[in-house]
Amino acid sequence: MAIRLTGRLICASEEQAAIVREYLPEHIRLTKDEAGCLYFDVSHAGAMTWDVEERFVDRAAFDTHQSRTRASEWGRATIGIAREYEIHET
Predict the structure, then answer these.
(1) What is the number of domains present in the chain?
(2) Cα(52)–Cα(76) distance, rounded to whole angstroms?
(3) What is the pLDDT of residue 63?
(4) What does the alpha-carbon distance between residue 39 and residue 48 come to, in Å, rounded to a whole number?
């Protein structure tokens, strides 16, 4: 079953928003290059909010992405930024 994640990344300060702007392009590039990534988009929705949509071929690909993300520069830099995500199997 494919995995779909939708939600928002919500910054509490301009400092957090600056971190997202700095690290996001590389995070997007690395994610799109991952095996099993069908779709990945993070779009600026407001001053300090980004909409997130991801689709992966299966749970294994999604779990690999999550592990890579946690260990990445993006993961370390954005660990304190709020996320509101829903994950669905399709």
Answers:
(1) 1
(2) 18
(3) 98
(4) 23
Under 8 Å CB-to-CB from 58, ≥6 apart: which residues?
1, 2, 3, 36
CATH number of the CATH domain containing 44: 3.30.70.100
> Among all chains, which residue has been given the structure tokens 């994950």?
87
Where residue 64 falls among pLDDT bands split at 50, 70, 90?
A: very high
Fill in the DSSP letter of residue 36.
Answer: T
Average pLDDT, rounded, for the chain? 97
The residue range of the domain holding 15 is 3-89
Contacts of 43 (CB under 8 A, 6+ apart): 50, 51
Residues 36-45: contacts with CB under 8 Å, at least 24 apart: 36/60, 36/61, 36/62, 36/64, 36/65, 37/61, 37/65, 38/2, 42/9, 45/8
What is d(CA 32, CA 45) in angstroms, rounded to the nearest whole number? 20
In angstroms, rounded to a whole number, what is the distance separating the alpha carbons of residues 52 and 31?
A: 13
